[in-house]
Design a protein that fits this description.
Blueprint: H1 2-12, H2 25-58, H3 74-78, H4 90-109, H5 116-144, H6 149-171, H7 182-190, H8 194-213
Helix pairs in contact: 2-4, 2-6, 5-6, 6-8
């Protein structure tokens, strides 16, 4: 308990311009809050997908609540081989991953500083999760030919959580970007400029869906 209090005190005393050590507590809390909200939304979406997967396991002809059009069809995606790549619904992995992220985000909000090995492990695992989410998006986009709104929401929240986790690890010096000036990178992050990069990725994601399906999204 004393150590946690000391960590909070140390973080409160840091300025955003410091080039060594963890980010100031208000900055960390903003990032942790983004991760928490995104993780909770992703957890809910994963839970819905899990329930729908169980419904389809009981009746492959079941109509799901998000089967709105020939293109917007969760059941089409859920019945594909890609939706159960490891032999069980991918959504179960989402529930596990988001639960861990939420725990990390809550602890970070409280001023907890995790060791470098833990944060880098979380970074590696969640980067694999991000790659998996985008692989599933590409599979649905190119091969399955249908949009699952809940799956798309998971892709968005996974992107936001990964961006927040990466922001923390880079800003705290756990993760170093080759060929960059650490001080310049920290100033870039302190100013919130990385948010524009994250927003650009999400805009491209949505634009790709609209460009491919267009009016067919409506009927």
């Amino acid at each position: 308990m004393d150590r946690a209090s000391d960590d909070v005190g140390e973080l409160d005393g840091l300025e955003a311009s410091d080039e060594v050590g963890p980010a100031p507590l208000p900055w960390r809390r903003r990032t942790a809050l983004e991760m928490l909200v995104s993780g909770l939304i992703g957890l809910y979406a994963s839970f819905v997908l899990s329930v729908e997967a169980l419904a389809l396991a009981a009746d492959r002809d079941a109509t799901l609540g998000c089967d709105l059009t020939s293109v917007i069809s969760c059941s089409t995606v859920a019945l594909s081989d890609q939706a159960s790549l490891l032999g069980f619904p991918n959504a179960f992995l989402g529930i596990a991953a988001e639960s861990v992220v939420i725990t990390v985000a809550v602890a970070t909000l409280g001023g907890v500083l995790f060791p470098r090995w833990f944060m880098l492990t979380a970074q590696a695992v969640y980067t694999a999760g991000l790659a998996f989410a985008y692989w599933l998006f590409v599979e649905a986009y190119v091969h399955i030919g249908a949009v699952c709104p809940w799956c798309l929401l998971v892709t968005v929240t996974t992107t936001l959580v990964w961006a927040g986790l990466t922001r923390l690890n880079v800003r705290d010096g756990h993760l170093r970007l080759p060929g960059t000036d650490p001080a310049a990178v920290r100033r870039f992050l302190d100013a919130g400029n990385d948010w524009f990069l994250t927003a650009a990725v999400l805009v491209l994601l949505v634009a790709a869906v609209v460009l491919k399906y267009g009016p067919s999204l409506l009927g």
